[in-house]
Structures are given as C-alpha cells and as structure tokens.
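Predict both folds.
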Amino acid sequence: MRILIIEDEKRVAGFMRRSLLETGYAVDCAYDGQEGLEFAQTTPYDAIILDLMLPKRDGLSLLKTLRQRGVATPVLAVTAKGTVHDRVTGLNSGCDDYLVKPFAVVELVARVRSLLRRGMAQTAALQVDDLILNTTTHTVTRAGKAVTLTAKEFALLEYLMRNAGQVLTKTMIEQHVWNYDFDSGTNLVEVHMSHLRNKVNRGLHPALIETVRGVGYVLREPPGEGP
C-alpha cells in the first residue's frame, strides 16, 4: 500500500512517515499544497493524509480540485482545528475521515488501516487457496499454519493477493510497495520476493507465488479459485 502525506511541518510529516513505514506502508511526503496536488495527480496512491492548513494551496482547495478531477483516493484530513464546524466542513469537502492534532501513533495507524479497507471495498481477510492474509490482525496463514513475514514481505503479499492471477512487473511492485526514495537499480525487489516465495511455497502444493522470467511475479489462483 502506498500513502501520500501532505504536511508542511516537516517534523510532523517525518513522525507520520516513520510510523507508517514501520507498519509496512510505502510513504511519500509533500510539504505544500501545490506539490501535494502534483503528487496526488501523477501517482496512484491508496490513501492520502492531508493537512488542511498548507502554504501555496490550502488543503480544502486541494481536495476539491482532486475530487473535481476524478481522483477518488481516500483522504484522512489532519488539522489542529477540531470544532464540529471544522469537521463538518472537511467532510463536506470530500474528506473520508478527520484526525485532530495532537494524536497518538496508534490512532493514526488505525485510521489509515480503516481508510484503506473502505477504499478497497473489501473485507479484512484475503484468501487464495489455503493462503489467508488478514489486514486487521496483520497475520498470514497457509494450510492452517502461521507464516511469519516482515512488514515489507506482508505488503508485497497483500499486493500480490489483491491482484491474484495478474503478472506484476518489477516496476509495478516498486511503485506500489516502495516510494520515491527507492533506488530501482538495486535488487531489493528480487531479494524480498525470493524470501516471500520461500516462506509461502516451501514444502506446500501448489506453489502459489511464481516468477515469470523476464516479466515479473504472479500469485496463481488454482483452478476453481477465480470468479
């Protein structure tokens, strides 16, 4: 899952970014409204965290522009203004949720997870064959046994499962699971995918995660799993 934070206070943006990175999300930051608008229009984010008081372009103006241009990405408004009027104004302008500063890390992460579930319009549990991933409890099982994954492996598996049967290229994976700081010249994608494939496939049939040589990776749906 890839998230955009639009926040002019770099200390606050850094705090939110670290919290979400530790949870396994890919995170980009923009520090004014104009930069945030450009990011949001050029990259397919799964959620946006938006400060409503920004330089160059305020948050509500930015949000209205996004909605007018057909960008439906779920938005969590973050602001120091917490009156009922402020919350109603934000929600009426297209925000999906509202978080008042100061806030705890656990609440920020919980709000983002809730927003992502609503945005995906899917249940918390994803299943392909005997592989089950739960986005709420952050757990994975296969054939009834727990599979222990790192935060990045969990994010990779979730992306594969949400696109089961579709071959995902290295570039697609980089753009969705990592962020703008990622060095595409490294072999990190291959390394993480190798570890994930071993954990999910090892000793079990069928081998769900496959490498499509020269193209990318795919999580195969066994016969009868599709719609």
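Second protein follows, with its predicted structure tokens after the sequence.
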Amino acid sequence: MKFWRLCALASLGLGASTSQAALFEDDEARRAILDLRQRLETQRQAQIQSSDQILQKSLDQTQKQIELLRKQLEVDSSQAKQDSSQAKQDSRLAALQLQSQIEVLKQEIANLRGEREQLLREINLLQRAQKDAGLDIEDRFQKLYERMAKQETFAAVIEEAPKDNKLSVQVDGFEFLADPEEKRDFEAAFVLFRKGDFSAAAKEFGQFVKTYSVSGYKPSALYWLGSSKFARRDFNEAIAQLRNLVTDYPNHARTPEAMLTIGNAQIEIKQSKEARKTFNDLLKLYPATEAAAAAKDRLAQLK
C-alpha cells in the first residue's frame, strides 16, 4: 500500500522572526505540502496506468495465442479429412490436446482478469484513504495555524546576547541560544524544503545535524531531515532519522508527528506489524495530540 507516504508531512510549520513572519512561513510550508501531495498523486496515477497497461498487454497476448491455436486446430481438422483412419485418430487426439491448451489459456485469462479487478479495488481503496489522509493533514495544519495566530509573539530572534554574539531563538516552542551561522544554515535548509527541493533539503539538514550536533535546532532539523527523506521515498532512512528524534527528544513538540511519519513509512515498505506497534505506542505516549488522533484512524484502516 503506497498511499501512506504523504501522511508524514502533516503539520509542517516553523517559527519566524515575528508572529506575522511565523504565520507567513507556515503558509508557505502548507503550500509546500500541497505541492508535494500533488506530485505524489501524479506518481501514483502513473503507476496505476502502468499496471493497467501491463495487464491489458498480457490479456492481448494470451488472446492472440488462443486465436493461433484455433487456426491450427482448423488446419489440422481439414488435413484430417484427407488422411487415413489412423491419421484421423491422431488428428482428433491433437485436437483434444489443443482444446485442452485453449482451456488452460482461458483459465489464465480469467485469473489475469481477476487480478486486474483486485488491483482496481485496491487502487480505489488507496485513493479513498489518500483523500481522507489529505483532509486530515489540512485539518491539523489549519488548527496549528489558528493556534499560532492567537499568540501575541512567536519570535525566531528575540535579541542578541551582548557578550558572546549568540541569538536567542524560539523554534517549535523551545527557546535557546544559537550562533548566527546556525540560524542562517537552518533557515536556508528549510527554504529548500518549502520549495519542494527535497533532495537538496535532505542534504542540507543532514549536514546541519553533523555540523551542529549540540544545537538547539537539532531536534527540529532531525524532523525535517526525516520528512525530506520520506518525500524522496527513502523510507528506511526516514525511519532511521525520525527514530533519532523520538529516542533523544521524547518531549519535543515534533516527536508525536515523527512517530506518525515513521508508521506511515513502515506501511509503505509493507511492515504492517511494525506500523501497528508504532501507532499504538503513539496513542499510549501522546494520547492528547493530533498525531495520536491520526494514528487511531490509520490503525482502523490497517484492520
């Protein structure tokens, strides 16, 4: 089931230099999510079309084989009329064999059609689930946007530290001191993510985590790194990076969303059992979060 790769990008947002800037950046992030969803939908439709074409081609080839066998049967039957009694018996035997082959081919066609119908049913289920997931993402993002709009200030940079030139910044509800270079590099990586350049964003966030290993930005950087990997369909690497966030920063605001994305990635690589465990852990550890509500819906769809 490949529809779940979109669900991990829920609730994308990052604080900006003022309350107005934060709302502006979240609006851009929301557009980035919508663009990503459109790209994934286009890819999914292309995969669906390719599967239909392959099945149809197989059906056409099988039908041609039947027609060739029927023509051969007609030729053999005509020849049998001119042969001796023994030759007629041989021809009848050959006809029976050909007829048996025809029946086998007919059964193969029926099986192919059954598989095609099953595939179409699964595609319909995937499309419905994707639509529900998209609505869920938009709803949770809107709630986040409204919650941030009510804050009087949400400053990414409050003031410069007079002695060591560090900046006091606030990201994802956590306030900490950072060098100007840290802030610059983190924001540059996030700009790439908002533009939909997930390959470049993954590279920059990965470099950020290595360069600023003790930075207050690190948990947020891990979240966006994992999200970039998910968007590039590198599901195993997305799981690995997001697990670093879940393990090292269990109290971070992005941790519930990270667990939700991990579960969706596990579904994409057909690890349904692991995905159920991830969603159940999310419900147990963060029951009051929007991510937990989404995980509950995913569990219902997995049954």
